[in-house]
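Deliverable D5.2: sample structural annotation.
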Amino acid sequence: MSFYTSLTGLNAATAQLGVTANNVANVSTVGFKRSRADFGDIFATSPLQKASATIGQGVSLKRVTQEFGQGNMTFSSNTLDLAISGDGFFPLKSQDGFQDIFTRNGSFLMNDQFNVVNSAGQRLMAASVDSSGKANLTDMNVLTIPQKTNGMATQTSKVQLGLNFPADALVISSEFNRNDPTTYNKSTALTVYDGGGNGYLATVYYVKTRNASQASPNNKWQTYVYVGDQLVSASLQQATSKTGDLMYVNKYGELKAKGDFKTAEEVAALNSSFSRKTYKFSLNQLTDVRTSQPAAVTGGSAINLGTGSNDGVDFATYQNLNKSDLLWKQGSSAVTYSLSTSGVPTDSVTLTFGPDGAKKTVSVPVEATKELTTASLAKALNANSDFGAKYVAQVPTSATLPTVAFNSPAAAGDFASFGMNIGGKTITINNLAPDSASGASLAATIESRLRREDGGRTDISVSWQGTTTAGSLKVVDAAGRQITSATLAPSTPTGGTSTGTTVFTSGDLKVTAIDPNLPAEDIAAALTLAQAGTPLAAGAIALNSTPYPRSSADYTFDTTSASFKATFGPDASPITVTANSINAFVLALNSEATFAQSYVASAVGGVVKVTAKDPTTANAAAITGALKFYQGNGTSFTQINDLATPNPLGSNGVPAAPQFAGKKSIDDLKDLFSINVDNSIDPVTIGLDRLVGSNLRLSGAQIAAELTNSINRAYGDEKPFNFSSLVGATFTVQLTPAGGATPPAPLDIDLSQAGDDKKNMRYEDMVKATQAIVDANPSYAGKVKVSYDTVLQKLMFTSAGNDKITISSAQSSIGLTNPIVQGVNDESVGLTLAPAASTASYRAINDQRFGVKVEYDAVKGGFVFKSGSTGDSSSVTVSNIKPNSLATQTSKGLGLTGDPANYIVSASKIDALRGTKSYPAVLQGNSMAVNVDNNFSVDDTNNKFVVSVNGVTGTVVIPPKDTYTLGTFMEALQSGINNLQGPSVGGLSPQTIDGVKVTYDSVKNSLIFTTATASTDSYIKVTGDARWGVDGLDAKFGRTTTWIKPTPFKDNKGSTVYIDGFGKEASNAAGFDTLPEWSPIYLDKGELTFDTTGNLVSPKQGAQLDTVYLPNGKGSLTINIDYSKSTQFASPYAVLSQSQDGAPEGDLVGLAIKDDGLVNASYSNGSQKSLGKVVLVNFSNASGLRQIGDTSYYKTSDSGVPKYGEAGSAGYGTVRSGATERANVDLTQELVDLITEQRNFQANAKAMETSTSLTSTIIQIRN
């Protein structure tokens, strides 16, 4: 048995030697894994055999296994050489595709089908990947490396050209021709590709079309793009912002990116514009920059308003008399119509006038619930320009005291007082002191005092009828105010008497002729007045013939004479008028301009009457001296004066008072027009009657300034003076005569009842009321003059001579702690008076307007009325223009004539006409040094503020007080600022400050001052104590806005181009109604624009081209050329940079395999493609794999199922490209193993030899 046992040992040693020899032999085999022989002893026993006494029978080879330890790596230049670092096998597929093979041998190459295979032709498997490189382990395919791309050619869509265009390039005006180099400046060529990878030569030609100029400060280049021989037009391209948002433009040229529409209203405005047809607007044509303007009404021709000695309006020629009374004093006649004012039907009252065939009617309806007021009829008549050209309507009311008698003997002081109620206002006159004891003197005194109490108006007149001391007293109001009471009181019970019932009259309509030569009879004949459809009876019509009849001369002619002649004018060149009959002679005289200017001729039989038109002509001699009349027989003439009978007969007239000759009425200055600014609730009515009788001759510019100040004052936030809450004297005036004479008693000035029905007064009213009280006191009358200083806001008292005045007041609201004494060298003394801060303005806040301006255009000769705000929301309407007044006067007047529609400029809600609102001046103070959360004090050390606003400078004094809150302090400061006025220059209206707002910034703890006017002319500066944060502040100015009038784009034919609701160009206006609120803004097609600094203005986002269709059905190209890196500097043409997308199909130029097995291929067209991912396979028992040679294995049941995974993931090694794994055989170990195996063999052989020797010995013993 030992022999056979040793034989198994020899066999085992031989097997072990074979395994080791195999390991040594494969030491250079890539991916080879060392083998190991596993042996087991042979032991056999029967069930009945004693195992402990049984000897083993040798050794047997159980199996040969591999040790899958990591081998070293060898690097190569072959990308397909792969080495696994860690666990795992490469999955392969047999050539027939049926058998899965696994290996660690990563020596791969490509076969003729570009599959990745090993030397045995087994193909490497790889998983498909998504765009992120993630492997799909369920989709395993043979790894294939395409040598060319298929379908990966990219179409050219964007070209980037960074060019420098020479700034000095010549502008070319010739028509472009690509074949003529003289029609373009430069060109650039490049290759573009279609979707199939086919290349085409594209050429861009550049033509300079315009140099920068004052009108358009940009340089223009036009581009022409050809692909092959085909011209590619630039496409319609909407401008975008720097962030790529589409841009839109409104009617004011304001650009806005789509992303900047934030609020719901803004988004709705944009959305509502999308589907509407609009003009095409070009970004490069937003060059029509305009300054925002206010709405403006331009009047008609107004001439002779310069600064010459005879130019301008002479207000000294205007009398403070109503027009009817003035005309009467100038010699005009009138007719009075008595109308019934109660119980009348609801029909209208009508007056018809004018020549036959051209009659005109003015009607005034009578409301059923109201009695007729003749004032409404007179107003309607005077507002009719045709009527007003010939007549003046007046509605006087009167009160007659029928029986008035002085005492006997008569004394001037027989009557003590007179009182009346007129228009709801009670006037009481005490201390009547006529100059003499006569009715005429009494009437003159009452008239003077009534007019003074009536604010200086001259509508009231008082007349006396009767003897010197007995008669009737009649009070007439030409303004037609209702007189409800009139009483005359005696001074003592035995003084004068006034008995009988006072007679009140109303309902009279007085029509006075403008022409003083028009008799009352002619007026009555020319006018027809009807009430309730019935003409007035003759008894209701009274003729008021002129009290100043004209001088006349009667020439008696022989009616049988054959001819008649008159001569007049200068002796050197007399004017001659001849005729063949008396009637023709009269007609010829009246038709001759020089004669008709001074005379009027009429004939009765053979008597020709010549009447002088001038009412100041006092006698007939002036007529006969100027005119020579003749009659003749056809061959000679005889002068009428030479006849035997005294001829002509003269009639001397009564001359009119010369002081009224050539004068005009205050009515021609009153209520000249109404103006409505910016759609105010109520318009303001403006007149120049405050200048009546003043010694002023105003030019057009001065009148414009006066109108400006008057309008702004009427529209502003002026507050009234009101002393109605005071009890007792408002203040007291004490006159101290010069020279030590005994002073009069102090004069109490009580203004508690002065003013309108609400006791409100403007400063002029306060002056008149105060002056009336002064003049009513004999001790002060004529010695004290009252005025108001608009700059100092003081009621001024000026004494006569060297008298001095002292002002005192016991009223706390007046604020006089001590009396004010006129200084030794002072001409006057002033009492500071200003409306209370809490007083409401005359005009409601929401109806106030500021900054209205009237200008006189001296070149065109006309007045311009401008709103105080700029933009299309502003509006101006001038209406109620008074006919036949200064308003409609062309020479030396306002010239407001023509179509009333021309005097309306409405707000523009659709078209952009005047731009946008401008910005006011805003002054922000420094931080205040007070705690505004608590009450704080203002004292004499910090209560003064010097304020300048729009050219008006003044000092605001805040009343000292310890209990100011922030609100009351700002109210007092704001009110004080808005009470400021400029000086009254030459008696004109002062400029006022209105509408300044004082607000508070809680963040900065500071005051903010904002002007009401908004323009570049707006200005504000406030200086005051540091406590209020207003020390050292710089002046601030407003800003007049500018806007751009978008110009609709026009094509080569000059036709306007539109954009329809789909964003396409259209050449007709069908479907276009009005401009939407926002319109898309486009770039000019193919145009490059550079500014004067050489930088590109547009297109910054690239020039989009129309789609070009390629020949032979190869598809199309849509290209955008980006010029954003281009410049225009003073250097030669150069290509600074050039790049583009688009490429043909590419050839394989590179292959990369990442550590995670991702295979990326690079191609010559620049594209890259992930071909797949080399994955690894693990087994539960790698030793169970079946080796099939070439370091490859099959799976077996012992190995378990293959587990696929991505390289580098948990349990899997990584893949190294360009490397292979060497065999994991250790030669040193293998040599040691050989020695061991040799010894084993020798030992087994020796055992066998021993066994053989023993056997031989046994055999020898037997033998």
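Annotation notes: Residues 73-151+1146-1221 form one domain. The longest strand covers residues 199-210.
The annotation will be released with the project's public dataset once the embargo ends.
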